[in-house]
Amino acid sequence: MAVREWSIPRGVIVLLGLAAAVVTVAGMRAFADILGPTLLALMLTIAVNPVTGWFRRMRAPTWLGVTSALLAVYAILLSLGAALAISIARRAALGPTYHDQFDRLLANVRTGLGHLGIGEKQIHTTLSTADLGKLSGVLEGLLSGTARTLTSTFFVLALLLFMGLDAARFPARLLVTHGQRPGIVDALAAFARGTRQYLIVTTVFGLVVALIDTLALWPLGIPLPVTWGLLAFITNYIPNVGFLVGVVPPALLGLLEGGPRLMLLVILVYSLINFVIQSIIQPRIIGNTVGLSTTLTFLSLVVWAWILGPLGALLAIPLSLLAKGLLIDIDPTTRWLDPLVSSNPVSDPTPLGDPPGRPGNTPTGPASVASPDPSTSG
Fold it and tell me: For residue 254, which of 104, 224, 229, 262 is within the disulfide window of CB 3.0 to 4.6 Å?
């Protein structure tokens, strides 16, 4: 008697996968306060891990490499946290000095709307919600939220210590695992490599943008140009739209300092500098570096910011690389999705619709996926 083969319809599998994704996302949102700093610590550990590797290649003691890497990342976190704290304090001290200018600006707007024939009731309803404190609160929330993540942080610092100690021995563990699960090791190695490349490229572009913005705002007379340069550096890690977040505070100060003309000049300068670099040049280089399409980088920002908040927006690309490694690269049967999400997919000479067994066609499958040298997987 033949045994009837039982299988689940593909549509049911898709529905189960979507349901599992919904549950996973809901769980991540519920634990965002813990998950966000944990992922930040992971990304920082990956970023400084080459320091440990350099000491290992120089035959130095392992503890020296781990200590140097930890001191480097601690110095980065503390420096950035201190700079953010100083910026928040200076912005808070600057705010009260502009309340009179802001009130005069609202009065001028009210007068102009009245000349256009708009009723007093509509004008009052529209302008009653305008408040300088509310407008600057968005910026302060971003800066203070990032500062809390970077400086409040016994949790992050402790995680960095433990992850740094484990990272020193992790390459040897990967070499042992590669013999039995090469696909998993290759996917993890690709994620770590892509994350480091992304952080390097984004940091370099962020420093360039911050320097140019600071030098451009200084002669325009915009207060706190260094603060807005720091904000431009931080928002540079937000894919595609970080420029829009960074332009609002200096443009608003330009409006209060010199009126609409200075505000438009600030927006023009930012558009020429930040939009060209952050929205045209940088996404193309990052896409070619990490292998994610422009559309996917933008969707990454939306999804991860919704799940983890501001920290998710800052880590959107590395988190998408991690999801890609765990869901696509780790399994040979799902690697056919890679050309669909990559910015520079490898062309396949096989025409669509032709069976793989015909002459001249390239067979596809797990056997055609080349595994890198185990010595490079760590």
Answer: 262
Phi and psi at residue 67, in whole multiples of 5°? -65, -40
Name the burial class of residue 175, with classes exposed (0-12), middle (13-18) and buried (19+) by CB atoms within 10 angstroms of its CB: middle
Assign 23 a pLDDT band (cuts: 50, 70, 90): very high
CA distances from 312 to 14, 27, 173, 262, 268 (A): 26, 15, 29, 33, 29
Question: Residue 25 to residues 22, 33, 305, 322: CA-CA distances in angstroms?
Answer: 5, 14, 12, 15
Assess contact for 127 and 110: CB atoms under 8 A. Answer: yes
Q: Which residues of 238-271 are buried (b: 16+ CB within 10 A; e: fewer)?
A: bbbbbbebbbbbbbbbbbbbeeeebbebbbebbe
| Radius of gyration in angstroms for the set of CA atoms belonging to the chain, rounded to a whole number | 25
Distances (CA, A) of 21 to 141, 261, 297: 30, 49, 19
Which of these, 249, 258, 251, 265, lies nearest to 95 by C-alpha position? 249
Confidence of residue 211 (pLDDT cuts 50, 70, 90): very high
Average pLDDT over residues 159-164: 79
Residues 6+ apart with CB under 8 A from 350: 356, 361, 362, 364
Task: Give the pLDDT score at 352.
Answer: 39
- 276: pLDDT strictly greater than 70: yes
In this prediction, residue 26 has a pLDDT band, given cuts at 50, 70 and 90, of: very high
Query: CA distances (Å), 329 to each of 23, 41, 322, in order?
Result: 22, 23, 10
Tell me which residue has tokens 């300092």.
257
Task: Give the pLDDT band of residue 112 (cuts 50, 70, 90).
Answer: low
Question: In degrees rounded to 5, what are phi and psi of residue 126?
Answer: -70, -45
* Structure tokens belonging to residue 72: 């480097």
Give the largest Cα separation in the chain, rounded.
Answer: 91
Q: Which position has the higher pLDDT, 254 or 110?
A: 254
pLDDT at 108 over 90: no
Alpha-carbon torsion 256, 260, 262, 267, what sign? Answer: positive
| Average of per-residue pLDDT across 274-286 | 77
